[in-house]
Amino acid sequence: MLGQATFLFMGILVVSYEYLWFLTVVRWTPTFRDTLVPLVLGVSEIVPQFFLRGGTTWWTSTSIFVLVGAAAFFNTITRLEPELFSSDGREAFREVRTVLWRLMMCCIGTSLFAGTIAWSTAFHEVRLVSMIAAWALGTALFVVVSLSEHALDRVYAIFEIERRPKKSDRKRRRITATG
Question: Against a cut of 0.85, is the pTM above it?
Answer without folding.
Answer: no
